[in-house]
């Protein structure tokens, strides 16, 4: 069964859709979460991107590295890949494993005359440029959070396994002169959770299908010991960043234990009056995530465990409102990086978040049977709504204001659609899409998904990035190619704030927003009443048909929609027993 589940994960390497699979590999395959989910498998390189010698002098039989082997060295292995170094020539090779993965590398060496270990320099990269880079410099390659550039020793007639980072590419260089080293294999050691994709999304637009899968895979890779933000950099539990990730997990993997584990870690690491991660909005996101979790899964016992902390947090937040009903939150006032230097945007966004948080708090108090606190927090939310921030022109804050009913959604949509997908962010892109849906601009939202997230795919992305400026596409090379001297390096030549150059993470779970959005708003699956009901309300936009599956507390829900000649939509629903369907 391990092999079957591995095939499911590796399908993403060859762009296979569920429609092409036997049922056992599709959403019907269900397995409960367990402590044994973490597994490791070994992947053969898919291609050689570059090698320092093409004449067969210092690099021989390089094509052997692309052959799937058994991982076992032997004394009679013949015609292995070989590194031959001299004082003047220390060869190197750059390998592509086909898709971003989390883990390290296992290198095995055959028999040779010298029994001394072979010193190799390894450079992992999320892009070709990063794997070819030096630490530091203008393009800012780093060893922060996870080592990705270091020297190892490979034993004679043996193997060594090293590394724990996010990568797709690996450059290997010989360090010393006068080496003649037969290498049997350089395989990636891929570490991931062995869990099935219970949710799915297919339509007549293959670009949207690939975006849905890429978002799902991005979050899947970040489901390590805890729910991380990134697998190369930011291997941390950032609570605000978790919100889009949790929505993707709800959509793809269902009720998974990693979410509660990560939320509890953040709660316990930040006793009140601390803000989570030192950021006031992130404490609000913690509460909003719990609201979404209950809405989807209805775990009242778990919600009850949070009640004391929630009341303390909401009471603390209520002290940061002035006489004009305006938020005056302290700590790090942060929405996302593109708005971090715009005080008016930050205030507008925080005001909206305060409204959303107190409304969510009131609803959860009602679920918990705490009527007094329900009325108290609803009264605070109503009070906050009396202050409507002005002079905001950013898409991020406009989206939050629309979602909090501080601004008419159609009016906000004028800001959201201005200049296409310029001034978007991968994190707040999800809330921009949510606000566009509230404005009933589904065709516009689909264009945003195709242009913005699809823009990353056009540049070779196999996971979605920490940040992306669509204007940077102009005259930039792909991340899976050597960059021509006349082009920009989309990874190394751009970026701001904490993501300058190669420090930029190309696998960030907060960028997965389209995955949950497409399932909720296009496939039309709206979970209600603690997961007991689902309202089916599709919005196909310019699509002809869409179908998919969704994990509910009762089992897998399957839905398909087909637009007929007169524009009506015909719907077929296959619901598990016990789930109430609302149309």
From TrEMBL:
Residues 1-19 form the signal peptide. Pfam families: Bac_rhamnosid6H. This is Alpha-L-rhamnosidase. It comes from the Bacteria. Residues 198-522 form the Alpha-L-rhamnosidase six-hairpin glycosidase domain. GO terms for biological process: carbohydrate metabolic process. The lineage of its organism: Bacteria, Pseudomonadati, Bacteroidota, Flavobacteriia, Flavobacteriales. Keywords: Signal.
